[in-house]
């Protein structure tokens, strides 16, 4: 019933004429959204970075309407969910970055689905990070063409073991099929995007380019650019007292960013070459603040922080002839505003039932500077559910209320204070005014509490993770990784866990356990709901198959454990589990 209701909702979307741009029924513009990973506000030369060279993004900025204050979540998955849906991530179930909490509810309607319904060809090239398995994959959420990596990045437990942490010649997934690519990953994503634009003809395209650079690890970066930055004087962008190791990390990050810049230049050139430049909206932003401490335009905090340095991003929107270039400083925007802004610019009317939290920034981008009275909430932390008052920022028209209780904690320390900052006079958040303005703290906390109650009541069991569906004809093989398991350990990815699944149809399956290295003297246990199987193997082997396993229809948790070694005194969980429908 949920999927039927969602289909009917999307079917009610239609395209209408819009005074803010050309009639999209006659000539709909292409849309390209570029979002980089862990690139800070100060990681562009046009933002004042005196070391990093980004001439192509600088040119894009100069030709764009630019918001001087734009906000994202402190980490990547919540930002991506908000961007794709126009809704707070707490409504979407995608509230963390791993352990099953980076899967977006398949009932959410994405930009790709709405634009595809309006006649667009849609493609994603890079980092999805909202679910690797059916029905949460990008290809299940409105994208016609997909070339993505799994999970939160290359070199994470979600990648195929044989990728060996490569960014160069990486193993990716094209429309669900594993492929070996050639070249640096960012180059490969832009190649695919350019190819789609060149082959689309007159059909409008929605291209989503979320790079996984400059996310760590930093061992595989463009060598020529790294050689350039490792011999540069980086002192102007490093924190005081930075070590050689820290400086080397920044040189590697800058190499990845300049590589992104070069690819932005290639993309803009392709738009010119194909005659699409004047009829293409290009949006550029970052997903959160910088992972390492470095120049950040004088703002406090880094990635995972709810201070400004962790949640501020550029927003450049280029649409030649329709949006005049220049800064827009009258108000502020956030990731939840991107979807409604695009719908407004394109003249796409959407049903109220979608309950978007964002608002269109089109008037602001068009230079209509109206008084800004809104407030927004940015909250993200580890754990199974959003926790009231934990690691949160409330951004009002002038003041910002902050409780920086730590992203890595599931619960805040009870003595963590609420802080208040006047962003108009103190953008660096150096002077806490909470004691001077207790009435403002009270009113902003009341706004936050009402917001928290609202988003937490979006659906029954609002913070339960969505289930991976097994047995569907749309995914005859399902690969389970530690990205999506519910860890039974205490910290990190864990060595033991289970996956929450839903089995569709009466089927039988082969279940293969993959380990990181060959194991000998193995006793493997597989549990799927009430189904229990065991196998023994002398080995050594790195693959153990349970054949012809019958699983009834319905919800079940899958857990696999391998005892191995002399006397079976060592225990581990699988690296990945492959379920193949017979």
Percent strand equals: 25-35%
CATH topology-level fold name of the largest domain: Alkaline Phosphatase, subunit A
Q: Taking Cα atoms only, what radius of gyration do you get, to the nearest Å? A: 24 Å
Please state the average pLDDT score: 94
CATH A-level architecture of the largest domain: 3-Layer(aba) Sandwich
Category from helices, strands and their pairing? alpha+beta
Q: How are the strands of the biggest sheet laid out side by side?
A: 8-7-6-5-9-2-10-11-3-12
What portion of residues is helical?
Answer: 10-25%
Pick out its properties.
Jelly Rolls; 3 domains; ten-stranded mixed β-sheet; Alkaline Phosphatase, subunit A; alpha+beta; Arylsulfatase, C-terminal domain; 582 residues; seven-stranded mixed β-sheet; single chain
Q: Any overview of this molecule?
A:
- There is one protein chain.
- With 582 residues, the chain is an alpha+beta fold.
- The chain folds into 3 domains: 2-24 and 32-365, Alkaline Phosphatase, subunit A (3-Layer(aba) Sandwich); 376-456, Arylsulfatase, C-terminal domain, CATH 3.30.1120.10; 468-581, Sandwich (Jelly Rolls), CATH 2.60.120.
- The chain is 21% helix and 26% strand.
- It has 11 helices and 29 strands.
- It has helices at 2-11, 55-62, 76-85, 111-117, 185-199, 223-230, 244-273, 308-311, 338-346, 362-365, 438-456, and strands spanning 14-15, 30-36, 65-67, 70-71, 121-127, 145-149, 171-174, 177-180, 205-210, 280-286, 315-318, 326-328, 333-334, 348-349, 376-379, 392-395, 399-403, 419-422, 468-470, 477-481, 486-487, 497-503, 507-519, 522-528, 531-537, 541-551, 554-564, 570-572, 576-581.
- The strands form 6 sheets. It has a 10-stranded mixed β-sheet with strand order 8-7-6-5-9-2-10-11-3-12, with helices on both faces. Strands 19, 21, 22, 24, 25, 27 and 28 form a 7-stranded mixed β-sheet that branches.
- A hairpin with a 5-residue loop joins strand 27 and strand 28.
């Amino acid at each position: 019933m949920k999927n039927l209701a969602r289909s009917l909702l999307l079917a009610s979307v239609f395209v209408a004429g819009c005074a803010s741009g050309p009639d999209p029924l006659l000539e709909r513009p292409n849309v390209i959204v570029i979002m980089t990973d862990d690139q800070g506000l100060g990681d562009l030369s046009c933002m004042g970075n005196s070391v990093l060279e980004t001439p192509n993004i600088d040119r894009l900025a100069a030709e764009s309407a630019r918001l001087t204050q734009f906000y994202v979540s402190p980490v990547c998955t919540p930002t991506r969910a908000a961007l794709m849906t126009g809704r707070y991530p707490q409504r979407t179930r995608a509230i963390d970055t791993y352990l099953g909490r980076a899967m977006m509810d398949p009932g959410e309607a994405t930009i790709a689905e709405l634009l595809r319904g309006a006649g667009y060809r849609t493609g994603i090239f890079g980092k999805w990070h909202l679910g690797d398995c059916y029905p949460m994959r990008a290809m299940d959420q409105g994208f016609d063409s997909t070339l993505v990596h799994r999970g939160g990045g290359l070199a994470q437990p979600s990648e195929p073991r044989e990728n060996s942490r490569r960014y160069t010649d990486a193993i990716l997934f094209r429309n669900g099929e594993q492929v070996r690519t050639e070249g640096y990953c960012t180059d490969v994503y832009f190649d695919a995007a350019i190819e789609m634009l060149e082959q689309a003809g007159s059909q409008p395209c929605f291209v989503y380019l979320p790079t996984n650079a400059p996310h760590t690890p930093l061992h595989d970066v463009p060598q020529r650019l790294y050689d350039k930055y490792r011999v540069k004087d980086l002192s102007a962008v490093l924190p005081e007292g930075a070590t050689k190791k820290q400086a080397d990390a920044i040189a590697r990050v800058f190499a990845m960013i300049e590589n992104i810049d070069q690819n932005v230049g290639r993309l803009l050139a392709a738009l010119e070459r194909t005659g699409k430049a004047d009829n293409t909206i290009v949006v550029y932003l970052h997903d959160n603040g910088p992972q390492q401490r470095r120049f950040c335009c004088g703002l406090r905090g880094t990635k995972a922080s709810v201070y400004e340095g962790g949640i501020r991003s550029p927003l450049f929107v280029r649409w030649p002839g329709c949006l005049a270039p220049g800064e827009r400083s009258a108000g502020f925007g956030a990731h939840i505003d991107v979807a409604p802004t695009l719908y407004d610019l394109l003249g796409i009317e959407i049903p109220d039932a979608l309950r978007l939290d964002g608002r269109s920034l089109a008037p602001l981008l068009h230079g209509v500077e109206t008084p800004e009275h809104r407030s927004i909430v940015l909250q993200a932390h580890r754990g199974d559910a959003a926790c009231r008052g934990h690691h949160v920022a409330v951004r009002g028209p002038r003041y910002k209320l902050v409780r920086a209780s730590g992203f890595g904690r599931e619960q805040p320390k009870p003595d963590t204070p609420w802080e208040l900052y006047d962003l108009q006079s103190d953008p660096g958040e150096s002077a806490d005014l909470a004691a001077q303005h207790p009435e403002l703290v009270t009113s902003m906390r009341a706004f936050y509490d009402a917001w928290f109650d609202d988003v937490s009541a979006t659906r029954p069991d609002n913070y339960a993770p969505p289930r991976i569906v097994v047995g569907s004809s749309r995914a005859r093989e399902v690969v389970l990784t530690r990205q999506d398991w519910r860890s039974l350990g205490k910290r990190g990815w864990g060595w033991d866990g289970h996956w929450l699944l839903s089995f569709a149809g009466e089927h039988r399956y082969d279940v293969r356990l993959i380990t990181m290295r060959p194991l000998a003297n193995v006793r493997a246990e597989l549990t799927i709901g009430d189904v229990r199987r065991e196998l023994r193997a002398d080995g050594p082997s790195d693959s153990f198959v349970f054949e012809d396993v019958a699983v009834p229809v319905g919800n079940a948790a899958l857990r696999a454990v391998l005892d191995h070694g002399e006397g079976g005194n060592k225990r581990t969980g699988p690296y990945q589990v492959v379920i193949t429908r017979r």
